[in-house]
Structure formats: structure tokens, C-alpha cells
Design a protein that fits this description.
Layout lengths: L1 H16 L8 E2 L9 E5 L10 E4 L3 E5 L6 E5 L7 E8 L10 E6 L11 E5 L8 E4 L4 E2 L2 H4 E2 L2 E2 L14 E8 L2 E6 L2 E7 L7 E6 L3 E11 L14 H7 L21
């Protein structure tokens, strides 16, 4: 009987620790036009349609290569406590490149063209990194995973080969952000200095496509997500049990400049 009670208690605690999703999904990009979005570009002589377009299948096309940096900003600036899902890919024949999703965006031009926000990185081979832009957050193993504004993800190989579609899931729950790439838990930060704002999609020098951008609010009292469990490859690299010859991955230090 005691074992049954303890099992029931564990189940209840597990349920209380998970975020609860609401049923009111919002399709942020309608797949037809740019209703609800405003383009912010670092050069005034470049127009939205010089960088972004929409093609069949509801796909948002960003022709960022050789174009000035900028972003599409959703008109709502009060998004908080939600899960954001989308799919992205780099077109066939391209090497990939840099881009990202900005969450909790507030003050414009906090760093060059970028608004004050937290960037959920889509840079090829680095999807799931978090870059702070005029903001702060806390992360586990910060002494090894934070370099400048960059907060390294937990995995090296969660992205699919170009030009396959990738699945991105961003959970913003109070002052925490958790990110999954193709079902892999890749990052988790806490104590974010801001937890409410607009959502933005970056143009950062690469051609990239996205689709199915959907926001689902969390219900009241949803609780916080469990702490992220480091991927085994990250543990191997940074654990005291790793061989002394184990070296930091070649992407350290981060490329510069990047947002």
C-alpha cells in the first residue's frame, strides 16, 4: 500500500511540474501574405519584398544572402507563456547559414538593428543556441557553455541534412525558455530578464525558408518545465570522467559577428 501511495505521489508531482497547453492555437504566419508582420531592415533603401516572399505551400521565403540584416516583427508585443512551433530548412544547393527566432522582443535597435530580446538560434549546425540581445539569462554549466552573448546548446547533430525540413519547438514559460530541435531537447535557460514581448523572424545573411509557425498559449497554473538533461555528447565532453585528451568542439569560440 505504501508503494502504491508513493507511486501515486510521484505521478501527481510529475503532472504538476509540466506546462499545461491551451487549446487556442494561433497561426502567426498565414501562408498567404504579411498581415500582422512588419519588416525592420538595417538599410532604408531595401524593402521588405527585396528579402521576403511567400510561395506555394504557405512557405515564407527569406532571401537573406547578400542582403542587409533585418527581421519580420509580429504586431503583437504581449506574447508570454506559450509554446511556439515552426519548421525551417535551408534551400537545396546552399551551404546553410545564420538566422534565428527572437522571443520577448521589446526595445528596437538595442544592438545594431536587433531589438532587445532573446534569440533562439537557427544558424546551421548551431540550432538551439541562445543569444542574449540586451538581456540576460542563466544556464547550467555556464562556465563551459557561455561565451560572450552566446549560450551553447547541448547537442551537435540534431539538425537534418539540407534541404530537409527541421522541427523547432520553443517553450516560453514565465522566465524560462526550453528548445527542442527535431524532438531533441537542446537548450534550457532560466531567470530570463524579460519574459514578454513580440516574436521576430530574422534575416541574417542566409537564404532560409519556414512554414507552419504556430503559437499555443499555456494555461494558467501550468507550472515550469523540468530542468534540461544534458545530451550524452555534451556530458562526455565536459564531464570530469571524460578522457583528458577530450577537446572543446571546433565551434568554440563563437563566430563573430553574429546575433
Amino acid at each position: 500500500m505504501l508503494q502504491i501511495r508513493l507511486l501515486a505521489l510521484c505521478i501527481v508531482c510529475r503532472m504538476l511540474s509540466q506546462p499545461v497547453f491551451g487549446a487556442d492555437e494561433t497561426v502567426l504566419f498565414n501562408g498567404k501574405n504579411f498581415d500582422g508582420w512588419t519588416a525592420v531592415i538595417s538599410r532604408p533603401d531595401v524593402q521588405r519584398d527585396d528579402i521576403w516572399s511567400v510561395k506555394d505551400g504557405g512557405i515564407l521565403v527569406c532571401k537573406g544572402k547578400d542582403k542587409p540584416t533585418g527581421y519580420l516583427r509580429h504586431h503583437r508585443d504581449d506574447f508570454e507563456n506559450y509554446t511556439l512551433t515552426l519548421q525551417w530548412r535551408f534551400p537545396a544547393g546552399t551551404p546553410g547559414g545564420n538566422s534565428g527566432v527572437l522571443v520577448h522582443a521589446t526595445t528596437p535597435a538595442a544592438l545594431n538593428v536587433w531589438p532587445k530580446s532573446l534569440e533562439c538560434q537557427l544558424n546551421h549546425h548551431n540550432a538551439g543556441d541562445i543569444w542574449v540581445i540586451g538581456t540576460t539569462c542563466q544556464i547550467e554549466n555556464a562556465d563551459k557553455r557561455v561565451v560572450g552573448r552566446r549560450h551553447y546548446n547541448l547537442t551537435d547533430n540534431s539538425e537534418r541534412p539540407i534541404p530537409e525540413w527541421n522541427d523547432y519547438k520553443i517553450l516560453c514559460n514565465h522566465d524560462q525558455i526550453t528548445i527542442w530541435v527535431n524532438g531533441d531537447l537542446v537548450n534550457h535557460v532560466t531567470q530570463c530578464s524579460q519574459s514578454k514581448g513580440a516574436i521576430c523572424l530574422q534575416a541574417e545573411g542566409a537564404d532560409i525558408e519556414s512554414r507552419n509557425t504556430v503559437l499555443t498559449p499555456l494555461k494558467e497554473g501550468g507550472g515550469c518545465p523540468p530542468l534540461a538533461t544534458p545530451h550524452w555528447s555534451f556530458v562526455l565532453r565536459h564531464s570530469s570522467f571524460a578522457p583528458q585528451t577530450t577537446s572543446i568542439p571546433p565551434q568554440y569560440p563563437p563566430p563573430s559577428p553574429a546575433a
